[in-house]
TrEMBL record:
InterPro entries for this protein: Indigdn_synthA-like, PsuG
Catalytic function, reaction form: D-ribose 5-phosphate + uracil = psi-UMP + H2O
Annotated protein name in UniProt: Pseudouridine-5'-phosphate glycosidase
One GO CC term on file: cytoplasm
Keyword Lyase belongs to the record: yes
Known role: Catalyzes the reversible cleavage of pseudouridine 5'-phosphate (PsiMP) to ribose 5-phosphate and uracil. Functions biologically in the cleavage direction, as part of a pseudouridine degradation pathway.
Amino acid sequence: MTRTPQPHPDLVLTEEVRDALAAGRPVVALESTIISHGMPYPQSVAMATEVEDIIRGHGVVPATIAVLDGRACIGLTPENLELLATSKDVAKASVRDLPYVMACGGHGATTVAATMRLAALAGIRVFVTGGLGGVHRGAPESFDISADLSELTLSDVAVVSAGVKSILDIGLTLEHLETGGVPVIAYGTDEFPAFFSRSSGFKAPMRADTPEEIAAMMRIKWALGITGGLNIANPVPAADEIPVEKISAIIDQALADMDALGVKGKDATPYLLGRIVEISGGASLAANIALVKNNAHLGARIAAAYAAG
Ligand code: PSU
Ligand code: MN
């Protein structure tokens, strides 16, 4: 069974990533919106570098993905990471933005959706991030549902995240994933985690306790021809979590500030993330960085288990 298709010819792969994929060695994709629009500088670039190091520490090749000068790049240099973290000319690029950013020859930091699509085109099956987009609170009025959810029904990539934070409607996000046929697997817990907190009040649809179980689900899903991804929800380490009561008040304040300013559309998520960092006095950033690193350990182990199968 061949699980590693040839990378799409329009992609630019680093030699390290190309060699690993050709040899069937494990590779983990990483997104870049989290670097450009998800965290402040310089913590953003430090996080991106540390996460790559964690993945390498497991003997797995990291492939951070972005559009640079109009080219879809799979695997980035330290200079590329610095540019994404500092340049004002980096667009937040979801799937629908890829043709535009690439045709203009611009820079695009890829969201979960765009990163999944490019990872799949490269033949990468595991992707690590912090938080997924989802169904926004108020979506029944605003229709604001992240393209990350539709992409999970289309691209064959397992996405490791820390659950969904309550800037989103967690219940509606889980319903949407169910409709899309996306397995949602909590790691080592029965509860679906809420990003900053281990607890959301929602039971997880599925549970796994080892990377091997997750790799088995990936193999079976795709062998059956059930297209699309899987979402692995890995709770923030207990030592790094922010209690629900504390983060709820902060999120409510950030949502109220967003409404007062009239921020919406693709600016909503970056605004909220930035505002939460401000209101929490940096506590949310520390938790965010810790959970991404924790996800990197798990994602690398899943990629290794999948490649070994
Ligand atoms: N949640 C986070 N950090 C992030 C994002 C979400 O905690 O950086 C980013 C991801 O790139 C995600 C995107 O794919 O925001 C979702 O944006 P939207 O809601 O506009 O689809
Ligand atoms: Mn949106």
